[in-house]
Design brief:
With about 70 residues, the protein is an all-alpha fold. It has helices spanning about 1-10, 15-30, 35-50, 55-70. It is flat and about 30 Å long.
Length: about 70
């Protein structure tokens, strides 16, 4: 619920991307895998637009997909 409140208060897409990523991790822990993939995918989309191709945020998101699919 905290992340949802933060999401509502955060208008900047760049600032939302880490929230999407963390929500995805939470959904993974709750065994809500489809939602986890969707949220991490949103984070990755934003990271791809706002970060350099070699930025660690992109690697972290890709790694999180591996964790979810495991």
């Amino acid at each position: 619920e905290l992340y949802n409140t933060l999401m509502e208060k955060t208008k900047n897409e760049n600032e939302r991307s880490p929230l999407y990523h963390m929500l995805g991790l939470i959904k993974n822990e709750q065994a809500q895998y489809t939602e986890a993939i969707t949220l991490v995918g949103k984070a990755l989309e934003i990271f791809e637009k706002t970060r350099s191709p070699d930025h660690s945020d992109l690697a972290n998101s890709c790694g999180t997909f591996g964790v979810i699919y495991n």
